[in-house]
Amino acid sequence: MRCPQCGFETAGGAAFCSRCGTRLFAPRPAAVREFALDRIMTSWWTYAGSFVAAALLLILSVAAMASGTNGQPIAGALFVLSILVIAAAVLSRRGTSWSITSERLIERRGLLSQTRREVELADIRSVEVSRTFSQRLLGLGSVVVSSAASADYLIRMNNVANPDEIAETVRRARLKRLA
């Protein structure tokens, strides 16, 4: 094999030229593998109201139980209702997630029927972080990623923890993808 830099005849199968040190061939991977960088979910603080309501229902159920035998059906109903409120909050949180990979940003919404939206990292036009006063108090924020493919194409991550870190992760992944 001939060195493309200096023209020296090298031994077969050599990776570098023995004269000038130039790499003779760069082995290419068979396939580019996409890997996950981060998975983001809505913060638990978003569902704090649901948990407070469930706690109040639980307290009312204990009070109804303590009132006597006539309060047992009401206490049972309030207890079941409090469990349902907690389950609805947990399922609602699991219903929306965002994944940042080495190639794209993926938004998944829904439990039984699911909607999936993807933006290639190379197509990202801008990443915006906004934080209301209450979000700042809780360490939350919203991250909006807009695509260069369409003006209407946005991925909005509401009430996520550490929004500045998420925006920086997207920015770094985008720059690596473009390099």
Outline the structure in words:
It is a single chain. 36% of the residues lie in helices and 26% in strands. The chain is elongated, with a radius of gyration of 27 Å. It has 179 residues and is α+β, with helices and mostly antiparallel strands. It contains four helices and seven strands; from the N terminus they run E-H-H-E-E-E-E-H-E-E-H.
Count of DSSP H/I helices: 4
List the strand order in the largest sheet. Answer: 1-2-3-4
State the secondary-structure class.
Answer: alpha+beta
Overall number of domains = 2
First CA to last CA: what distance?
A: 30 Å
Outline the low-pLDDT stretches.
Answer: none
Which fold does the CATH topology of the largest domain refer to? PH-domain like
Beta-strand percentage?
Answer: 25-35%
Q: What's the CATH C level of the largest domain? A: Mainly Beta
Instruction: Give the tally of β-strands.
Output: 7
List keywords for this structure.
PH-domain like, 179 residues, four-stranded antiparallel beta sheet, 2 domains, alpha+beta
Lay out the secondary structure:
Layout: E1 36-41, H1 48-66, H2 72-94, E2 96-101, E3 104-109, E4 115-120, E5 124-130, H3 133-138, E6 140-147, E7 154-161, H4 163-178
Antiparallel strand pairs: 1-2, 2-3, 3-4, 5-6, 6-7
Compose a concise summary of this entry.
With 179 residues, the chain is α+β, with helices and mostly antiparallel strands. The chain is 36% helix and 26% strand.
